[in-house]
Design brief:
- It is a single chain.
- By secondary structure, this protein is mainly β.
- Helix content is 15%, strand content 37%.
- The protein is globular, with a radius of gyration of 22 Å.
- It starts with a helix and ends with a strand.
Length: 137
């Protein structure tokens, strides 16, 4: 092998090592699931024109959202506060800061702030373009 090829390989390895050691980003899986929080499996999604929406929702202390349902997939990340979600058949789940909720699909429920500070949610929705994000009962 000639010196030029050895030099190129050496430089490539040095650059690769520098790049790998300079990479400091961390990643943590917050949620990986095939079902909603009540263990209803996601069905095969048939989306012709996908639309993704991301909302920041703030629920004030002692505030309760109206009873509603979602006809699309959505995932809520609790950025701050304590959120309790209750279904119309009285199943409930409580989430704290940093937790993730795979929301119910087609089931009526509501969320309420059960903590002492506002709840801040980041909610990701994916569904057919034009589908309402929620439908009140």
């Amino acid at each position: 092998m000639n010196k030029a090829i050895k030099l190129v390989i050496t430089l490539f390895v040095m650059i690769l090592c520098t790049t790998i050691s300079a990479y400091s980003a961390e990643k943590n899986v917050l949620l990986k699931t095939t079902s909603t929080w009540d263990n209803a499996n996601y069905k095969k999604l048939k989306i012709k024109k996908p639309e993704v929406t991301v909302l920041k929702i703030i629920i004030n202390v002692n505030e309760e959202l109206p009873m509603h349902k979602h006809d699309l997939v959505n995932i809520a990340y609790v950025k701050k506060g304590i959120l309790t979600v209750i279904t119309d058949d009285n199943k409930e789940i409580t989430l704290h800061e940093g937790e993730v909720l795979p929301e119910l699909i087609g089931k009526y429920h509501y969320g309420k702030n059960t903590g002492n500070e506002p709840v801040e949610l980041i909610v990701f929705y994916i569904g057919e373009k034009g589908t309402p994000l929620s439908v009140n009962k």
